[in-house]
Amino acid sequence: MSVLDAARDHFVERAGAFAAVADRHDPEWLRRLRAEAAARFAEQGLPSTRLEEWRYTNLTPLAELRFELPGPEPAQVTRDAVESLSFPVFACSVFVFVDGRFRPELSSPRALSGSLRVESLAELRSKAPERLAAHLGRHADAKRHPFVALSTACLDDGACLFVPRGTSVAQPVHVVQLASGAAPDRVCHPRLLLVAEPGSHVTLIQDFVSLSGARGFTNAVAEVTVEQGAAVDLVLLQRENAESFHVSNLEVRLARDARFAAHTLTLGGGFVRNDLNGVLEDEGASLRLEGLTVAGGKQLVDNHTVVDHALPHGESRQRYKSVLGGRARGIFRGRVIVRPDAQKTHAEQSSANILLSEGAEIDAKPQLEIWADDVKCSHGATIGRLDENALFYLRSRGIGEATARDLLVQGFASEVLASLPSPALADGLAELLREQMRGAGAGEAAP
Amino acid sequence: MLELSNLHARAGGAQILKGIDLVVRAGEVHAVMGPNGSGKSTLANVLAGRPGVEVTQGRVLFDGKDLTALSPEERARAGIFLAFQYPVEIPGVANSYFLKASLNAVRKARGEPELDAMDFLALVREKAKRVEMDERFLQRAVNEGFSGGEKKRNEILQMAILEPRLAILDETDSGLDIDALRVVANGVNALRSPERALLVITHYQRLLDYIVPDFVHVLSDGRIVRSGGKQLALELEQKGYGWLAGAAPR
Asked: pLDDT for B130-146, tens place per residue?
């Protein structure tokens, strides 16, 4: 039996054991959803590098480990530990999840607008089952994505936010997904369900953090529905430890004149794979994807995007940047599909990469599939080193070499940070990036 | 202050400087002129420590100490400043942030306290006024999208802020119209003092109407072929560099 098959069997067995307990108190529709997903996962198993989508990202290191679902006892986490991870800009409204489970006692759930707040999936299961049933698993397809299937098969808790029609949420909503690092090695399945009703507006930060240096596997799934004329900014911040495996699937659907932006900032994690699928289902939708990866050591960061333009007058802009040092590997694969009906589409994608060391590596592959004839599409990828001229220029002004390199990296990153919905957020994250670089991160420029 | 003896240097795989002797004392202004390819920029770069420019023979002493042992940043902290012929654009790094990082690095090396944001702002505003530079340029990314003249003003602004002891101007006049030239020259002249020295590298005599040198040296094929007073620059202007080619020592 191959390593991948053995891992599949392990996950199937654990999902089965989990469902046997959870099913006792869950409604029929949820039991069915889990059982269906478990079957889909068993069929697909863990993808091998023979599959084009996984060509550069070998799951063997993940498959060799035996991760366990969190038990019924909540992991011991103190408020101080949570606060030490925070920074000022996030002081607004914080919803903390540990190993995928909502922890109200660790959260500061200030009301967002009226009585609006993030709710836990577990809570909604009894409070608003119809609404949950209508949206959960609607876009995240267990048939196509084995990790979505695994997540749904182990569906337990998650963050849900339904922004009512016409509501504009002024402060960013901060959802912290903590990996406790408790023994044995844990797998958790953080889930996010975000529905922005027509004309509403919200910024949500999903922040993945480790509480310790222990190994863990985070398999995150997010489903975002942006209804007519609504606007959503989603910030995905990856700052888990270097031993972490992180797989995420984000599914976004945009209705007429809807606007969505994702800002994927990957600073941590040992093995990170992000899949982002956006469908512009109606006319005049606008989608923007900004990515920034700063990685060093032996980190692997793989960003896969698919942007699907179904109807006319849509606009999508993707910009992924990475700075890789040490022996880090980066992958960017972006696919833009423009369907025959999607005339007057404007789609751009770019991948810009800086390699700081000989050992770092990047595979960038932007792709366009255009079936309509009246469209404006462009794509491009660049790979380079830090500009030696710029480095000398800074040094000739008295700035030390290490600081000069960091400055250039921050300059390169600043474009992506500037795209964040608020300057305070951009400043906060720039500071976090600087801190990260002062640590063991990619700032080290060992050639 | 600066003493070059029999300086040989290679750049880009070619021997460019072939034995330069030059002594620059505090308070002096030296002009180095010469045709394209004579080694003017290599001389500037070797003093600033550009990687890839390699001293193969001879000595460079600054305050009696071997300059080649110092990194570019150490030279800057010791008081050497190179105004670049082609100032570099640095996207995403605000000019003010860069200027502050630079000044504080130099101040720290001098044993002076670092300036806080308020004091720095006051200083930079005053200096920017002197080079007639709009304050908006402080918020923009370093040199990004600046015109040729704005870039050169930014060089002089940096120089005014860092107050170097030895400033090297590498073709600072190139690409400047007459107004910008005047502004840049005023900025440079404001810095002239008995403690400071200037090395003005230029192809044309024009700049020397504004920054009047004490000495003029003519560089040809990596050697100084003629040295003299400011009159030499005028002679060159009339007769062209061809006049000296024959006189060059072989």
From this structure: 888 888 899 999 999 99
User: Helix crossing, B95-109 with B117-130: angle to 10°?
Assistant: 110
Question: How is A127-176 classified by DSSP, letter by letter?
Answer: H-HHHHHHHTTSSS-TTT-HHHHHHHHT----EEEEE-TT-B--SPEEEE
| A333 within some domain | yes
The answer to which of A90-104, A333-347, B32-46 has the lowest mean pLDDT is A90-104
Q: Is there a domain that residue A410 lies in?
A: no
How sure is the predictor about A441, in pLDDT bands with cuts at 50, 70 and 90? very low
Among all residues of chain B, which has the CA nearest to that of A403?
B101
- Residue A447 maps to a domain: no
Q: Are A318 and A307 in contact (CB under 8 A)?
A: yes
Number of H helices, E strands in chain B: 10, 12
Residues B63 and B1 sit within 8 Å (Cβ to Cβ): yes
**For residues B17 and B6, what is the distance between their CA atoms, to the nearest angstrom?**
9
3-class SS at B245? helix
Q: Is B95 on the interface with A (CB under 8 A)?
A: no
- Residues of the domain holding A141: 75-386
CA–CA dist B21, A139 (Å, integer): 76
pLDDT average, residue stretch A418-428: 87
Counting the structural domains of chain A, the total is 1
Residue A91 confidence (pLDDT): 57
pLDDT of residue A128: 87
Calculated CA dihedral for residues A393, A396, A402, A407, nearest 10 degrees: -40
What residues of B are in contact with residue A394 (Cβ under 8 Å)? 90, 98, 102
A392/B93 touch (CB, cutoff 8 Å), yes or no: no
Give all domains of chain B, ordered by start, each with its CATH number.
Answer: 2-245 (3.40.50.300)
Establish if A250 belongs to a structural domain.
Answer: yes
The number of C-alpha atoms within 13 Å of A203 and in the hemisphere containing its C-beta is 15
